[in-house]
Amino acid sequence: MCKEEQEDKWLVDSACSLHMTGRTKYLLDFRSICNGGNFTFGNNANGIIRGYGVLTTWNFSIQKIAYVEGLKHSFISVGPLRKAGHRVEFDNDYCYIMTSDKNTFLIQSKFEGTMYPLYVSLIIGKPQLCFLSKKQYPRSANFGTTS
Questions:
Q1: Are the beta carbons of 19 and 64 closer than 8 angstroms?
Q2: Which domains does the chain have, with CATH numbers?
């Protein structure tokens, strides 16, 4: 079953070296790892990287989101976005994340206080997909018509 979680806040951060969250429920295809290494918070405390998953919204997906045990906020890092081929631009009011050719805006974030928070509707769990097929009949088939 899949549900959409409204208004989860992620922060766009140009100082982080990786995308990260402290909640595994945000991550599709989560893969646990034994020794992912330590992560040092701003107050010099350490968190442990326990695995990686995919952040998925209805508009886009971001690969390799680290689950950091003990992290209280969720961060989208500018460096890995750019490395993945996205364009990230900032102005006085917004942060824009778009395709590299600038043809498609994926999401924008309005400047609040000192941060650019992204409020996204996440897909939580496995999306339910329904595939329809249409049976093809041979051209020579005669379905109840008389000649």
A1: yes
A2: 2-125 (2.40.70)
